[in-house]
């Protein structure tokens, strides 16, 4: 096969490639990171490079202007070298390196509030939820074995199995060689009194470990929600089913891209996947460590981890190549991930502890949504219900116990406090409710602490209140008004909600025109997504009996405010139910009950995915939803009355 | 077989342009547009009380960008907006004059708002038909210019433009205080068009003084996009959407005389036809398409195209 040498300028990196390799692939091979959001399909037009020397064949693209073409611009992904070449990669085509990100930029992105592990409140537990039978991912069983004799002379392993089977009906059991090797001495030294940990591994039962003495109370698990923007961990006592602690952190992967697509692109870079995997594992380990420390546990006491994350997050957690998720025909490596040892993924708990992931449905709907459905109890209902996850991907699911249609609206991180000038996650000191009485503002913060920023429920309340008091017009632009002073910073209008004298951070808490625009884009995507799902299912809004809302917006979401801004459809308030973080709740339910885990797989199998990006109905109605509450006010009769 | 006649819930709102002495202005007569109760020219369905009207474009400077074949119709009148406007009304029977204050553009002559207002006054004095006045499309400058002009034309009930989503407040306020009508423009997006109308009405501007412009495409240059958006707007309006039931305007001349077909002279192959007729034909064809899409005001340039379009309107309206 003929080889060509390609030199990339200005760094003069050389690489030899086989004939028939395109320039984009060559660049990636050479470690030059070129932007391409379509995955080399010639569609996005971002991988522009300039040919300096050499002959080549290229497909012409509308993405390159006549002017650029004359200067030698081509799309790297559509260009095949036919000789040795010199290629200039212009700055605008380069994917920003993480090293390039200044400390200041990083600090700004995290608003200086990045704390590796900090307390969050446990999601409210839903009333009347079907209780799944207790049967955790790993169970500790304390046993007193009869000591062997001439009459009772079976082997140590058989003796152990026999004793286990007296307690539970487990015809097939597995046990690793390392445990068997330890067994003879351990049994005798502990005077035949041991605690075995039984793990539920893909339908069979494994003796995960054996400890001396009675330790069946010392069995803990971690349920995890790995979100695109936020990671939440619960420490669960597997025997008593109690949640002992809850902690959260930003997903540090945001440094490598705000959304799943840009992270997949980053993972395709050299060492990209490695980095993404390590930062998320480090964060998880520090969450687990601080949860354990708080309860005076050792990491060995933790025997199982249940994780709920979207498909990309699950891939990155396990360091599985996510590339094909974003490429036609959008196939993930795994949807139903078998149970593995947590240590294999790098999670530090007991070295033989298990890691289980809630199943994913496809590339763009993952285990976090399955967790949310479990938490909502939709899987048990005859009535038509709607599930909305107000996270970065903004997934919505319509269905009942028989079927589910899911869509991902790519709402963006603003309901988790991302992308807003004073946005923070739902944490202590986050403004979560806002109201105006007699032209005076009153705010409520989480934990009644002094305010640090605004979280999702706070921003929804604020916008609703702004709209009602005519502080903004219906397109979301800040107006001159009687209640707030409006100031201009870099030609953008903004309002100071809390002055710097009264904030925890010493900085003004503000909302500007761009923040509002962000929220409007997010809420518009979710509302339009709901319209599309209903249309596809041939249903009307009035057919909905329940609307479940999940997401880390804060402990309280004001439904009326959400309707006022057009995020949620104008239905009677009693139809709505706020689940809090449904994903971690679902993970908790599944770590505590194998029945719940089986149900999760059933839900995953009954779910179909609807691609909104190819829906012309979505595109058409989206711009109608970019208004407060909506261009068609008749859809919001209760809001019409107050405007 | 019985004909099925669609009965619509609502009608297109009726807008009055211009004010007579009795109404506080100095026009000979006011012009009514809109008011239709069905899809235009659909026999039996349309009670079309007011026919589409034609405004002829007049600039406050010589339109250098116009090709000879167009300029030749006006000769020296192009140098003086007053004379030019008079010619359009007297010789070519324009229903309205659309005064384009092109010279106010900062990159052109940067004429001051005060001088622009004077031009408006002069034209108002010279002709007695209602006036459409638009700026130079340089937004910041337009805000200034239009405020002065609305003041100068107070009471005359002119149609001022062009308000867009990012720049409507000043214009709306000016038209409100001068009691004029306003053109609300959105870029071929029915939702943004509606949003803009809501925003304008939220400023207490009466909805029966708004004219919608969806952007105009010349024939062969995206006409079909505008056409279908205009149809959708009309159907939505007739179905009861009050924020889309306004009459519509199209700047036909402006778009047609930018195309290479209209601008190229006789140096091309004979298949193109003679330059003298080519542009006018294209302008007429575009205008006729827009009439069918539901246009109420056509802003046009070439006298021959105006004449022919008027004939088509009359023919279409025979019941």
List keywords for this structure.
heterodimer, A: 643 residues, alpha/beta, Ubiquitin-like (UB roll), Nucleotidyltransferase, domain 5, 5 domains, 7-stranded mixed sheet, 6-stranded mixed sheet, 17 helices, 25% strand, B: 319 residues, TIM Barrel, 8-stranded parallel sheet, two-stranded antiparallel sheet, 11 helices, 10 strands, globular
Query: Biggest interface, which chains?
Result: A-B, 10 and 10 residues
Rounded to the nearest angstrom, the distance between the terminal CA atoms of chain A is: 71 Å
Could you say which structural class the secondary elements and strand pairing of chain A correspond to? alpha/beta
Q: At the first level of CATH, what is the class of the largest domain in chain A?
A: Alpha Beta
Integer-rounded radius of gyration of chain B: 19 Å
Considering DSSP H and I runs of 4 or more, what fraction of the residues of chain A is helical? Answer: 25-40%
Segments of chain A where pLDDT lies below 50 for 5+ residues?
96-116
Main sheet specs of chain B: 8 strands, parallel
